[in-house]
């Protein structure tokens, strides 16, 4: 486990000879904001940094704080904001398409977008497009046919730009920040949680807890395991990471992405393990700058729990193995998928998004 000092020293060694292009979806608050700020400082502003989020006013304040390179340091850098409601697949597609037409490449794509409904243990329901509230933000909003929210941002929209970075001999890394290493299983039925939402809420230590909301939180983490595994299989030359941020104090609030199974766990965790968002960002950035290609499951300090690089013939047997915790025949610590359930998840996702 690297110390904070080791992570900071590793980040400080990043000194690219090119202008890196980094996209932070969810970059206007929390860990995403802190990562973008740390990246801007590390590059002395000599980077093309794109923040994607809801709040334009907040974004402009963040962008104004970035270091601005001197004219003698060259051009090609830019700091910009793109507004997007990430629970809407149509909005995500539009943003992805627009960026695809004007960007030459992408080196780093960081997915941290969240929202009140995505973190609620009480509220559950559907978006106007018929997707589960929790999954729309934590999983579907990235999209398979254009890059779902995290699926949509990765496949057809951004993968060619990432591939081009690799062609130039530059890093290409997609990082989704949610619940890596927790080993939640990918189910084989009710993948969209329609049956769960039709059920009832339960009482837990005097609080009303929605079973569907809790399932949405846990499945969001499991589905992100499947997401990075699938994309790494399709693009063996690109790095795909699912990482756990831990319990993070963001803007004076506790960010604990869905694992508050009881209020008691929340209180104990808050007292013992919470770190500031800027500190978390150093660990996340350390992991972002530390991968060549393949799939990675990482903990809250950026340590690799498990990883795998796919061989050329991987697609022929991707759906054949039903062993949980195995990927392409390799045991993966902290990984909750199996080749069969990941294939089922991708099939469900493609069908769900095809109607939007």
UniProtKB/TrEMBL annotation:
Q: Which UniProt keywords apply?
A: Oxidoreductase
* Database matches in SUPFAM superfamilies: NAD(P)-binding Rossmann-fold domains (SSF51735)
Q: Name one Pfam family in it.
A: adh_short
Tell me the first and last residues of the signal peptide. Answer: none
Q: Which GO terms describe its molecular function?
A: oxidoreductase activity
Name listed for the protein in its UniProt record: NAD(P)-binding protein
Which organism was this protein described from?
Mycena venus
């Amino acid at each position: 486990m690297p110390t904070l000092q080791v992570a900071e020293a590793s980040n400080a060694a990043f000194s690219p000879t090119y202008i890196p292009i980094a996209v932070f979806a969810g970059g206007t608050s929390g860990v995403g904001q802190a990562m973008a700020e740390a990246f801007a400082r590390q590059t002395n502003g000599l980077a093309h940094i794109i923040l994607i989020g809801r709040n334009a006013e907040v974004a402009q304040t963040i962008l104004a704080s970035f270091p601005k390179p001197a004219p003698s340091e060259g051009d090609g850098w830019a700091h910009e904001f793109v507004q997007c409601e990430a629970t809407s697949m149509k909005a995500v597609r539009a943003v992805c398409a627009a960026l695809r037409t004007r960007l030459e490449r992408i080196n780093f794509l960081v997915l941290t977008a969240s929202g009140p409904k995505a973190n609620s243990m009480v509220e559950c329901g559907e978006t106007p497009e018929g997707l589960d509230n929790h999954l729309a933000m934590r999983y579907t909003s990235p999209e398979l046919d254009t890059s779902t929210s995290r699926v949509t941002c990765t496949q057809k929209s951004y993968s060619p730009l990432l591939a081009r970075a690799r062609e130039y001999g530059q890093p290409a890394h997609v990082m989704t920040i949610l619940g890596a290493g927790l080993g939640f299983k990918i189910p084989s039925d009710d993948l969209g949680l329609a049956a769960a939402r039709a059920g009832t809420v339960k009482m837990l230590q005097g609080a009303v807890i929605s079973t569907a909301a809790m399932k949405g939180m846990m499945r969001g983490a499991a589905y992100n395991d499947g997401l990075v595994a699938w994309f790494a299989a399709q693009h063996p030359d690109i790095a795909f990471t699912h990482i756990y941020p831990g319990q993070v104090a963001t803007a004076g609030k506790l960010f604990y992405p869905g694992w508050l199974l009881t209020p008691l766990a929340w209180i104990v965790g808050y007292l013992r393990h919470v770190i500031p968002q800027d500190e978390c960002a150093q660990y996340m950035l350390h992991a972002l700058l530390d991968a060549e290609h393949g799939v990675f499951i990482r903990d809250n300090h950026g340590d690799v729990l498990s990883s795998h690089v796919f061989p050329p013939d991987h697609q022929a047997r991707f759906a054949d193995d039903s062993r949980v915790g195995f990927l392409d025949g390799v045991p993966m610590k902290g990984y909750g998928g199996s080749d069969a359930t990941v294939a089922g998840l991708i099939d469900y996702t493609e069908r769900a998004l095809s109607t939007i």
